[in-house]
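To: structure desk
From: M.T.
Subject: fold request, one chain
Message: Could you run this one when you get a chance? Sequence is below, nothing fancy, just the single chain.
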Amino acid sequence: MKVPEKCRVLVGRMASDKSYGCNGAFDLTEFFEGRVTYAVVSDGGGWEHVSVRHVLPDGVLNWQDMCTVKDLFWDPEECVMQLHPPASSYVNCHPCVLHLWRPTREKIPQPPTWMVGPK
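Reply: Done. Structure tokens follow.
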């Protein structure tokens, strides 16, 4: 996992500095054409995790937005996932926050590319 240090939030309640490593809050607005966008990042407990949302205008991220976030925090050949957990495990603290996850102790299984679509 990598972090865009120039985007790290350095003041306020979610402040961190480089000594926090891959943990902290990041202002990603410059990558989203002025849409105010924040991510909270962590890398503990066997997982790398980014939660992200547009603050304005509507908070909703699309596929390309999530690809941008993925590219900011992981290398192109790393597999990262969004999860839809069982209903009994579901947690929703904010309706417009989306999450990217990557386990650090095992590889994410992937279907063969032919099952996804033609190349």
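Reply (cont.): The domain at 5-116 is CATH 3.40.1720 (Streptococcus thermophilus LMG 18311 protein like). Let me know if you need anything else for the meeting.
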